[in-house]
Amino acid sequence: MLRKYRGLAVVLAAVCLLTACSNADPGTGKAAGGKHEVRFVQQPWEDLVVETQIARDMLDKMGYKTSTKEVSVPLAAQALATGQADAYLGNWWPAQKPAFEQHIQQGKIKIMGTMLTGTTYAPVVPAYVTDQLGVRSLADLAKNGDKFHKQILGIEPGTPGNQYILDAIKKNAYGLGDWTLVQSSTEAMLAEVTRRADKQEPVAFLGWSPHWMTVQWKLNFLDDPEKVWPGAGEIRSAARSGVATDDPNLGRFLSQIKLDMPTVSQWIFDYSKQHKPAEEIAHNWMVGHKDVVRQWLDGVTTTEGKPGAPAVLDGLS
């Protein structure tokens, strides 16, 4: 029941973003909302949820009014391009090219900075599958089709990663033309992987790092000799095109968010495996990493023009 209502909330949020509930000017992509308002969009990805919470907490302490809507990747890109959202901290690149590239080239979305490098994003199999069947490449899947039920497990519908797999199936790349992509949610996919892994059953699914999945299971990211998969090398912060002009202070803040693999992996572990609320993880991280908070806020001010770092750090305990 909880998932049912959560799904309804996501749908309503998406409708809100793409209809008259937004007061953005669709001709310019410039937000017509209140001054110092920052509207984030996100997907239900553990690291992104925590990153957005930290950014919101900092901005709120500096006098901004922030909000978050959970939508699919294509809807996030469209919301930024039309000025119905202001910022997004989950631009996995180049995996999200189909959703974002045209808007970026047209100047409707601006990349504010690279937050994390060295990411990996591709279809995977657990190491025991490689040991059992010799599957090391996408080219090895078709000959073992029956053992996989001719299925690749995916995540939320509309995600570019899902679409790359669907395109490969449509083109019969690697002989996968009669395979099926099972689209559900990240949570549901990982639950099914857990069920099959516990029984040492073959399973192929959409995997990425950083994530706790690479810790819980030894995974092999499948080779792609035909280059049907773009991969992912970095995570970037993105904003509607007018952000840096409307609020250079906000633009500076978004451009200075920098992450590292151990930090992001810990957030994911705390959120998914320890079941800690994003608010608690964000608060504890800021308390324990005040030097990094100062780096993010270098030259950033409150809405009243005062130094931002003291406004955020004072009172943290």
Number of strands: 10
**In the CATH scheme, what's the topology name of the largest domain?**
D-Maltodextrin-Binding Protein, domain 2
The coarse silhouette is globular
CATH architecture of the largest domain: 3-Layer(aba) Sandwich
Domain tally: 2
Question: If you had to describe this structure to a student in words, what would you say it looks like?
Answer:
Helix content is 42%, strand content 18%. The protein is globular and about 65 Å long. The protein has 14 helices and 10 strands. It folds into 2 domains: 2-118 and 235-313, D-Maltodextrin-Binding Protein, domain 2; 120-221, Glycine betaine-binding periplasmic protein, domain 2 (D-Maltodextrin-Binding Protein, domain 2, 3-Layer(aba) Sandwich). Helix 2 (46-61) links the parallel strand 1 (37-42) and strand 2 (65-70).
Short recap of the structure:
With 317 residues, the chain is an alpha/beta fold.
